[in-house]
Amino acid sequence: RKLDNVTVVVLGASGDLAKRKIYPALFSLYQEGLKPKTWTIIGYARSELSDEDLKKRVTPFMPKPDGRDRSSSNSVPPSPNSTGPKKKEEPLTLEQKLEKFFEDCHYVQGSYDEQQDYERLNKEIEKYEEGKKSNRLFYLSLPPNVFLDAANNLGEFCKTKSGGWNRIVIEKPFGRDLASFQELSEGLNKSFNSHEIYRIDHFVGKEVVQNLNVLRFANVIFDPLWHRSNIKCVQIIFKEQLGVEGRGGYFDHYGMIRDVVQNHLMQILCLVCMEPPVSLSPEDINAEKIKLLKAISKIDKEDFVIGQYRAKNISGKEYPGYLDDETVDNNSITETFAACVLKIKNRRWDGVPILMKAGKALDEKVLEVRIQFKDVPGNLYTEHKVSPNELVIRIQPDEAIYFKIMNKIPGYTDRLTESLLDFTYKDQKKSINIPEAYARLMCDVLIGNENNFISEEELSLSWKIFDPVLEQMEKLHMTPEPYAFGSRGPVEADYLAARHGVKWSETE
Ligand code: BG6
C-alpha cells in the first residue's frame, strides 16, 4: 500500500546542506515516483523568506533543465474535456517536474528555541494536512548547538496526534566527544522514542556501501578468504581535493577525525569487518556491528598521524592553505588529515592492521576500501614479480569492484602480469541508476526501514574508541604535520603504515 499524507519538515531549510542535498534528494524521490501519494514539504528556518525565495535558493542545486526528461512515469494528465481518440501522453519536461515539485513546497519562518514558533509551525502543518490521518518527518539540517532545542520543541508541539507516525532525522556531528554525545542522546530520548529517531550517516547510503553485505554474504568465494590467514591488511581511504572552502566555522571546531573518521569511516569498517549477521534485520546487523566495535583495541596517539594543508602554487594557480581561510582561526591546530591504524582483537582479524586515512586538499578525490592479501606461499615464480592479490571496492568516484590477480601474458612468453577482474558500474551494458546517498536514505526513512541508520550504542562505542586519543592530543596540544595542497598528505602516514609492515596502496 502506497504511503500517503506525509509532511516533511526541513529545519534549517535556508542552510547549505538543505539546498545542496536535502531538497535535491526529495526531488529525486519525486522524479523516481517514490514520493508518498501526497506530501507537503515545509522548510523552516530563521531567515525571512517567502515560498518563492526558498525556491530560488534551492533551484541552482536541482538537476539542470536540459530538455525532456523521460526518466519517470509522471506525465501531464489528459484534459478532462478532450474528445476523440486518446492522444499519447507527453512526458513532463524537467522544468515542468520542478514546477510540480515546488507546488508542494512551503516555507515557515521561526526561531529554533521559541515555544510559540513551534506552536505556529504545528498550526501550519495542520493547515496542509486538512484533518486527515497523517505522518510527520522532521529533518534536522541544523547546527549542533540548536539540535536539542529543536528536537525538544518538535517533540512537545509538533508531533502528529492523528494516529500516523512521527520520525526525526538527525545527522552528525553527534556530539564532539562521548560526554556531549551522551548528553545529546539523553535529550533526544526525552522527546522521541528509539523507533522514531533516525541517525543518518550519508556514507552508508552510497551505492557501493549498500553492496558490501551482498558482496560478502551473497557470494561463497569471499567467505573463506576474509580472514587473518589470507589478509595482510585492510585500508579505508577517503581523499578530497577541495580544502575547507569557507566551512571553517564548523570544521575548525571538529577536525578530520571527528568529521569523517569516527563516524563515516567507522561505519564502512563495521560493514567490511563484522561477522555475518543472523538475519538482515536492523537488530541483527546492529548486534554484529556492536560486537565488532567492542573488539577494537584502544588507539594510542602513536597509531595516529595528523596533518594540516599549506598553500601551494599549482601550475600558476595559488591554492590557499588551511590557515589562510577566513573562517579558520590563525593559530588553529585542527587536523585536515588523519591516518590511523586500528587493531581488532577477535579470531578473524587479530594481527591484521586496519588502516584508515582521510584528508582534505589532497591529490585526488576517492573513497575506497582495499583488501590486501598476503604473498603467495611457496611462490614458484621466483624470476618474476608476483604482486599479492588485492580486492578494491571503490565507492566514489566511478563506482567499481575489482580484483587484482596475476595472469600469464598471452603469447610466446612465460612472463606474468597483473590483471583486473573488473566490475566497473558504468561499463555495464545495462544502464545503472545510482541514487544519491541522501535520496536513498530519505526513501528509507519514509518507508520506515531502520536498517541503514546508526544506533545510539554504535555511536557511543565509536566515541569510546576515539575519545581517549582525542583527549590526549588536545592535552598535548599536538600539532599537525604540514602538507602541501594537492599532495598525498604528510609522509609520516607512509612511515605509520611501514611500522605495521604494510604500504598504502591507493592509486597514485
Ligand atoms: C561530510 C563532511 O559529512 O562529508 C565533509 O562533513 C565531507 O567534510 C563530506 O566533505 C563528504 O561527503 P561526500 O559524499 O561529498 O563525499
How many helices does DSSP assign? 14
Uncertain residue ranges: 67-82
Radius of gyration: 25 Å
Please tell me what the overall shape is: globular
From the N-terminal CA to the C-terminal CA, the straight-line distance is 50 Å
**Order of strands across the biggest sheet?**
16-15-14-13-7-12-11-8-17
**Number of DSSP strands?**
17
Helical/strand content category = alpha/beta
> What is the percent of helical residues?
25-40%
Mean pLDDT: 92
How can the largest sheet be summarized?
9 strands, mixed
Bound molecules: 6-O-phosphono-beta-D-glucopyranose
As a percent range, the share of strand residues is: 15-25%
Q: How would you describe this protein?
A:
The chain is an alpha/beta fold and 508 residues long. It is 33% helix and 21% strand. It has 14 helices and 17 strands. It has helices at 16-31, 51-58, 94-103, 115-129, 147-158, 178-191, 207-210, 212-217, 222-225, 248-273, 282-295, 437-447, 456-476, 492-499, and strands spanning 6-11, 39-45, 105-109, 135-140, 166-171, 197-200, 231-239, 304-310, 312-314, 317-319, 337-342, 354-359, 366-373, 390-396, 400-408, 416-424, 481-484. Strand 1, helix 1 and strand 2 (39-45) form a beta-alpha-beta unit. Helix 5 (147-158) packs parallel to helix 6. The longest helix is centred in the middle third of the chain and has 26 residues, at 248-273. The chain is globular, with a radius of gyration of 25 Å. It starts with 5 loop residues before the first strand and ends in a 9-residue tail after the last helix. Bound molecules: 6-O-phosphono-beta-D-glucopyranose. 6-O-phosphono-beta-D-glucopyranose (BG6) binds next to helix 10.
